[in-house]
Specification:
The complex is a heterodimer of chains A (372) and B (346). With 372 residues, chain A is an alpha/beta fold. Chain A has helices at 67-75, 100-106, 128-139, 144-157, 163-166, 176-189, 206-223, 234-240, 258-263, 268-275, 315-319, 347-350, 358-367, and strands at residues 23-36, 39-52, 56-60, 83-90, 93-94, 111-114, 194-198, 226-230, 243-248, 251-257, 325-329, 332-334. Chain B contains twelve helices and ten strands. The two termini of chain B are 22 Å apart. Classes of the chains: A alpha/beta (372), B alpha/beta (346). The complex binds adenosine-5'-triphosphate, adenosine-5'-diphosphate, iron/sulfur cluster (2 copies) and magnesium ion (2 copies).
Chain lengths: 372, 346
């Protein structure tokens, strides 16, 4: 659909964990639609990116923006009715349209996926020791006993107390946080090249979230894998991601290093999102809500999908959807007609922070004087 | 206005909790539901809420925040302890008296999907408290319209039903309803936790502005430390049913003294790449123990990094045997740790 000559990383990016390396995963013009009674649900629209060895790529975006569908498409895990086009290459090998047997040799081995709900990946009827040992034995020709020793080590690495005893536990005997660490241990046993983690800590308590993120980081460093990290938590992204992609209505709307996106955002949605975050590290400032809701991705009108919520929207925004284009540097791209006008602007300059209709409130107070 | 320390000190608090305790029985399954244990949900909780102040109650799930909120509003019966509203003990009131006072004390719940009656149009949802208290006939219709406009909805939205609104709009409807009786205190239980951040910001700004205009006092319950720092003047941190540390927002974030508060602050990543990567981290191991069988002495000791790594055996025995009191041990604000020590973590 969109012919985007600017694949996401036009420049080699040095990951925080090493020097610039080869592209392990290349996604090109990935487009996913689901037929529905109301028309085609355009879940993903022309997403392109490259992931290099050892790199952490963060994906953020509102609920429904297409983050999960993008990753499920990469893994070949979409339901049968999905209409997928574009290209997904793992180490040069095309995965879209590949046979199931070929996919299986990649999926879970070279590319490991970690979901929000660890039970998606665990089998309830086997002990966790058995499940980790199986993963070990799938890749190394070792005895059962040796595989169990390795399983113990892996559990220790992801900081599960008393790992040896824990081997005999079934998933239901563990807390959500512990199950997620078992999933990470299994991913490590598989020694993947790519880990895709989709909201791996959502719904867990903050202290447990921190433990999981530590384990995930450790797994990534131990295996040298690259990681695609999907999360709505911009703090997690800031701490972990080398590069960040912002999605809106099925498209990438901003891409850059973590510093680019957090310090010099060039797309109003990103600006608003960052301005809407209450901050732990400073006394309160006015927040910038983004009024309205994301558009439906069925029968989308032409133009920029952010138009109805964008304080900067002008006539052209309703007609022409902006392409991703370089901003502060060749690797920092944004999809906005008025990108340059965001130079030096704060979220409060762009978005309105007042929400109360004070006139209505004053009227209410006057009319109800002395009634309470 | 925030962090101005407009705390209860000085003037009389509008609302106080005094040594609140709540035990829930655990019953066996089966026909004869014998009591087989007790959940110690809230244990000796005391705090003051000042006029026009926001007190943030923060902690991880299951620590007793919602139970405390319900106790404070007398929606559930306390096992022991008192709740003083402008000097009156709510736990000792007759149902009739309580009904009258309820107009002053309103609650907004987390789930904007579950807390609004799906069969009622929005006008009726907002009008209902006025009707219940026999106040609708005196200008109720106009009041409902004013309230809807106040929270950013159009009067014509009043004829629609809750499912026709987004999460953020529903939460605004919940706030409009809570305001109908001109309460003095709002108890907000995770009011923004179910919302996307960009929508959450609108509800937080709304609460901010309403407080400034109406002089409301808020008890703001949340598991999200960033939200609490943003909205609260003073903060109480809960762990396994007890308050472990209290202070003004700046005291607590700039010099947390309890190891649990420190771990909590450490666990929240900052949305600032350079800052976040340069931070000192204090991590805790394991999960929260069951409130049916809380640890003796200090309830945090099974996960406390200080207990595990810094203390001598002699020092540890104190953590095991003696419940640490919530007092100021020279840190400038109270912390329930025998070995409280301020740290800078942000
Ligand atoms: N199997 C499916 N059939 C039809 N539509 C689907 C299907 N899966 C996803 N969608 C739609 O595709 C769009 C993108 O969904 P996706 O799950 O990728 O969002 P997301 O960004 O991961 O959101 P969240 O933050 O809520 O996880 C949404 O409009 C969603 O409703
Ligand atoms: N009605 C109840 N019966 C039994 N246990 C309860 C009940 N309500 C809450 N609890 C328990 O009390 C503890 C505190 O719960 P709650 O106040 O809801 O925590 P929070 O709001 O901090 O997540 C939890 O262990 C919870 O399971
Ligand atoms: S293209 Fe127009 S509507 Fe879209 S983000 Fe830019 S200014 Fe706003
Ligand atoms: S009293 Fe002991 S166990 Fe409790 S927080 Fe302080 S040092 Fe840790
Ligand atoms: Mg998703
Ligand atoms: Mg709760």
């Amino acid at each position: 659909m969109t012919e985007d000559p600017l694949a996401v990383s036009t420049t080699p990016t040095a990951s925080r964990n090493g020097a610039a390396t080869d592209v392990v995963l290349a996604v090109d013009d990935l487009t996913v639609g689901f037929p529905s009674d109301d028309g085609l649900v355009q879940a993903v629209r022309g997403v392109s990116y490259e992931l290099r060895g050892g790199e952490v790529l963060g994906i953020v975006g509102e609920s429904g923006s297409g983050k999960s569908v993008t990753s499920l498409a990469v893994m070949g895990l979409l339901p049968g009715n999905a209409q997928v086009s574009g290209s997904v290459r793992f180490r040069g090998k095309e995965l879209l349209g590949a046979r199931e047997s070929e996919l299986n040799s990649v999926r879970g081995r070279s590319v490991a996926m970690i979901f929000q709900d660890p039970m998606t990946s665990l089998n309830p009827v086997y002990s966790i020791g058995y499940q980790i040992a199986e993963a070990v034995r799938a890749h190394h020709n070792v005895s059962k006993a040796a595989a169990l020793d390795r399983a113990t080590e892996l559990l220790e690495l992801v900081r599960i107390p008393n790992p040896r005893q824990r081997l005999e536990n079934y998933p239901h005997e563990m807390s959500g946080g512990m199950r997620q660490r078992v999933v990470i241990a299994i991913a490590m046993a598989n020694n993947p090249d790519v880990i895709i983690a989709d909201e791996p800590t959502t719904a867990l308590d903050v202290t447990v979230q921190a433990q999981i993120m530590d384990s995930l980081q450790l797994a990534q460093q131990e295996t040298g894998a690259a990681m695609v990290l999907i999360t709505h938590d911009l703090g997690v992204i800031a701490g972990q991601a080398d590069r960040v992609m912002v999605m809106y209505a099925g498209k990438l709307v901003e891409v850059g290093t973590a510093e680019d996106v957090f310090y010099t955002p060039r797309m109003p949605y990103t600006v608003g999102l960052l301005g809407s975050l209450p901050r732990l590290d400073r006394p309160s400032e006015r927040l910038t809500p983004i009024e309205g809701a994301p558009p439906s991705v069925v029968n989308m009108p032409p133009g920029c999908p952010f138009t109805p919520r964008c304080p900067l929207a002008v006539a052209v925004c309703e007609e022409i959807e902006p392409e991703l284009a370089p901003t502060t540097g060749p690797g920092h791209l944004a999809a906005c007609h008025r990108s340059e006008e965001l130079v030096g602007a704060s979220a409060g300059d762009v978005f309105d922070t007042d929400v109360v209709d004070t006139e209505a409130l004053a009227h209410f107070v006057r009319e109800n004087e002395g009634q309470s | 206005m925030h962090e101005s320390g407009s705390s209860a000190a000085g003037s009389e608090p509008i609302l106080s909790a005094r040594n609140l305790v709540k035990h829930f029985p655990i019953r066996s399954t089966g026909l004869i539901r014998r009591q087989v244990g007790t959940v110690h949900a809230v244990c000796d909780v005391s705090f003051d809420l000042g006029h026009g102040e926001t007190l943030g109650l923060v902690g991880e799930s299951g620590c007793g925040k919602s139970t405390t909120a319900r106790l404070v509003l007398n929606l559930i019966e306390a096992t022991s302890g008192e709740v003083l509203y402008e000097g009156t003990d709510l736990t000792a009131l007759s149902p009739k008296k309580m009904r009258e006072l309820r107009q002053d004390l309103q609650i907004v719940f987390q789930d904007p999907y579950a807390s609004l009656d799906p069969r009622m149009p929005v006008n009726e949802i907002v009008a209902e408290p006025l009707r219940i208290h026999g106040r609708y006939d005196r200008g109720g219709r106009t009041a409902v319209q004013d309230l809807l406009r106040t929270v950013g909805l159009k009067p014509e939205h009043g004829n629609r039903f809750p499912h026709e609104f987004s999460g953020g709009q529903r939460q605004r409807i919940g706030v409009a309803r809570a305001l109908a009786l001109r309460p003095k205190v709002l108890v907000l239980d995770e009011p923004v936790s179910a919302l996307d951040v960009s929508i959450q910001a609108g509800v937080l700004n709304l609460l901010d502005e309403l407080q400034a205009e109406l002089g409301l006092s808020y008890l703001f319950v949340s598991h999200d430390l960033s939200v609490v720092r943003h909205i609260a003047d003073r903060i109480a941190v809960m762990y396994l049913g007890r308050i472990v540390e209290t202070g003004t927002a700046s005291e607590l974030f700039e010099g947390p003294a309890h190891p649990y508060t420190q771990a909590l602050i450490s666990a929240i990543p900052l949305p600032d790449p350079r800052k976040q990567r340069a931070r000192e981290r204090i991590t805790v191991v394991g999960d929260v123990p069951s409130p049916a069988d809380p640890p003796s002495g200090c309830r945090f000791r099974t996960r406390c990094p200080k207990f595990a790594a810094e203390l001598s055996d002699a020092e540890r025995s104190r953590c095991v045997d003696e419940v640490p009191e919530l007092v100021d041990r020279g840190q400038g604000h109270p912390a329930a740790c025998h070995y409280a020590e301020r740290k800078t973590l942000i």
